[in-house]
Amino acid sequence: MRAWEVRAPGPIDGSPMVLVDRPPPEPPPGQVRARVSVCGVCRTDLHVAEGDLPPRRPNVVPGHEIVGVVDALGDGASRFGIGDRVGIPWLGHTCGRCAWCRRGDENLCAAPRFTGWDEDGGYAEHAVVDEPYAYALPRRFDDDHAAPLLCAGIIGYRALRRSRLPPGGRLGVYGFGGSAHLAVQVALAEGARVHVLTRGLQARQLALELGAASAGDTADAPPEPLDAAILFAPVGDLVPVALRALAPGATLAIAGIHLTDIPPLTYADHLFRERAVCSVTANTRRDGEEFLALAARIGIEVTTTPFALDDADRALRALARGEVRGAAVLRVDP
Ligand SMILES: [Zn+2]
Ligand SMILES: [Zn+2]
Questions:
Q1: How much is the pTM?
Q2: Residues 65 and 111 in one domain
Q3: Where residue 13 falls among pLDDT bands split at 50, 70, 90?
Q4: Distance (Å) from CA 13 to ligand 1 centroid
């Protein structure tokens, strides 16, 4: 099968990935194999390719927003049948035994495995998944539009919940890519007023089309104080900027897996009056099930920019430059 491997993590312009031909994986016991139809392109893939995330598997195949059709079953796999459509997400395995798993916070598992980092992912014609971690996907979404739900959507949803946005509250969103454009639709459906702050003119236009009350540059202050904010851009410099925009008692949730350094904060300017900052780490399967059901119910509109599998490196370069409208997806099996 054709697959992209991260050969030598480094700057994306230096071609850290190569397209190779390798045998398709055989599903071990408890796993299923999917013939990949579409794989979403997530900023985390860029972090894996560039080495911002330390390599955990040599020559790993990136990609963790995988939509495909089951074409082989490992021993004992019974949840899905041959021909079923499945989604393969970032959270690939948890131990089920550590304190966090036992209390329902499997996103914080002490020994997790992630698709496209610890396990080979979906920038390839086949991928395998531990059956309990795959999702059945709502029929409402075709493969192109289902793929970005699997990480951009689910993580954005968890970030929104972590921001503790009160009903009818004012939400600030810093950065507006694949994840933000989905989270904002959940917030709007739940009655929020949304202010988007992002560099990209195209992104600002999409934000307004989706119903944001305002869209400005990250250097601008939002037009009113925020009851909650989410930082989607991987830019630590924006943490103090967003904290200053918060109303008393509000929370800033940082959605990314990687962030550049945060400049020094001042207690009085950034945190006093019970302003809070929290990170968002992966997601639980329950987050995923909740979000997919909600996305189908409210009819989330997924904006995608498609690329061919052969152009995966070009897709990541476009993402790095902020040139993708909505979410980029690779059409593996057009
Ligand atoms: Zn665990
Ligand atoms: Zn992701």
A1: 0.96
A2: yes
A3: very high
A4: 37
Give the count of domains, the chain. 2
Ligand 2 centroid to Cα of residue 90, in Å, is 6
Q: What would the DSSP string read from start to end of 120-141?
A: --SSBSEEEEEGGG-B---TTS
Q: How many helices and strands (H and E) does the chain possess?
A: 9, 16
* pLDDT over 90 at 334, yes or no: no
> Which residues fall inside 5 Å of ion ligand 2, going by CB?
42, 44, 151
Residue 284: inside a domain: no
Q: Give the pLDDT mean for 265-282.
A: 97
**How far is the centre of ligand 2, averaged over its atoms, from the C-alpha of 248 (Å)?**
31
Closest ligand (CA of 159): 2
Q: In the structure, what pLDDT confidence band is assigned to residue 322 with cuts at 50, 70 and 90?
A: confident
State whether 22 and 126 are in the same domain: yes
CA of 71 to the centre of ligand 2 (A): 24
Please name which ligand lies nearest the alpha carbon of 152.
Answer: 2
Amino acid in position 331: R
Which numbered ligand comes closest to the C-alpha of 102? Answer: 1
Over residues 223-233, the pLDDT tens digits come to 999 999 999 99
Cα–Cα distance for residue pair 288/41, rounded to 1 Å:
18
